[in-house]
UniProtKB/TrEMBL annotation:
This is COMM domain containing 2. Residues 48-115 form the COMM domain. It comes from the Eukaryota. The lineage of its organism: Eukaryota, Metazoa, Chordata, Craniata, Vertebrata. Pfam families: COMM_domain.
């Protein structure tokens, strides 16, 4: 559901002739609803977040090593997909978890840029 100007900008970079660009624009405007319906049917049905459980385990010693500190974070992620619920269990060390958090925060920050907002708005 993009505007005529956005559509023209998108196909202009493909290097087609002006006549072909006008023809593609007309075809798009005539079949916009049909295109949207087909694309929504082709969209993958991804699982969605339901809840999260987590636990911090720390191994302080073992028979062979008297003083060792080995932390581990266990996460149980509950997901919904097509009215079905499933759970995934993930385990990682705290440093990897911190790296994952930083990457996700960076991705969220990227989503707030004007470029990403425009793309998301055109996808809806």
């Amino acid at each position: 559901m993009i505007s005529e100007i956005d559509f023209q900008d998108s196909i202009h970079v493909l290097g087609f002739s002006d006549e072909l660009n006008k023809l593609l624009l007309q075809l798009y405007l005539d079949n916009r609803k049909e295109i949207r319906r087909i694309l929504s049917e082709l969209a993958p049905k991804l699982p969605s977040y339901h809840s999260l459980e987590w636990r911090l385990d720390v191994q302080l010693a073992s028979r062979s090593l008297r003083q060792q500190i080995e932390p581990a974070v266990t996460i149980k992620l509950h997901l919904n997909q097509n009215e079905d619920q499933s759970a995934r269990v993930l385990q990682t060390d705290p440093s990897t978890l911190l790296h994952l958090i930083r990457q996700l925060e960076q991705a969220l920050g990227e989503m707030k840029t004007n470029h990403c907002r425009r793309i998301v708005r055109n996808m809806k």
